[in-house]
Amino acid sequence: MANDTTADVGLLQRAENLLKDIRSHARRVSRAKDLLAAVKGKEPSSKSYAEWLEIERGLGGYELGVPELDAQRAELIEALGAEMKKLRIKARMAFMQKLEMLAEAQDIALEKLSEAPLVLFADPLTFEIDFDAGGARLLYGHEPICELPLDAKELLGAHQTTVEELERRTIPSEDFFDRLRAAYRMVLAADGTEKGDRVDLVDVLVPLSVLGLERKDWRNKGPGALEPYPRHLLAWQLAKLRRDGVLERGGVRLDLGAATGGSTKNKQNVLYIPVGAKNGQYYGSLRFG
What we know:
By secondary structure, the chain is of the alpha+beta class. It folds into three domains: 94 residues; 59 residues, no CATH class; 119 residues, no CATH class. It contains eight helices and ten strands. It has a five-stranded antiparallel beta sheet, covered by helices on one side. Helix 2 packs antiparallel against helix 3, helix 3 packs across helix 4 and helix 5 packs across helix 8. The longest helix is centred in the N-terminal third of the chain and has 39 residues. The termini are far apart.
């Protein structure tokens, strides 16, 4: 009798699971129907393409376990894929036309660095555009700054904001040399190592944040006033240091250690310093001597 009861419970659970899956499937299809109604008749654009991507993602990545319904879902996804291939071409063209038009109006020259993924150099920054994901990234060299929706106006707005921020926080190369040397000494003190030893380049980010706060404000404002020192700003200042020829000062020389091979695998441990649009090098350490 106990076995019969167990079997009944098992059958009931399977029925409940099936009903749950059907309801989940119904919600997904309903959501897809609403989105299809919303995008119907819209002009091809990066935004409308992103909406189609949402429809496709909502219907993919699972199986209902009911052959008839799964077959219908698969047919719908296939039909969506065919439409999206056509839309992708039109949306890309529309996006690029708008981006180029707005960039020209702002006197920003765009240089294509690669096609897949689409990478555009907009001096001094870089746009990395992923149409399939419906998004983009703003970078300095290979250092990510922010992720953005695939919207030309927002991309150029972020470009302008970042350039203004870089200009606000950039200090003369001579002053940066001295500040970087002080940050290096702070890392040596924290590690208990000797003058002239190498330290990881990314470890100077926190000391640079501390040194960015004026000494008179240390007591009055406290740690809450510290402004994070981003990786791309360090790469920017180091590139400027090199351009300005200030790698040596007062008989002291800055030595950056290049990172190669396996040492670049974890990008959080190294820093990419660009040279122009297409060249650059990863660095992992520094020393003053």
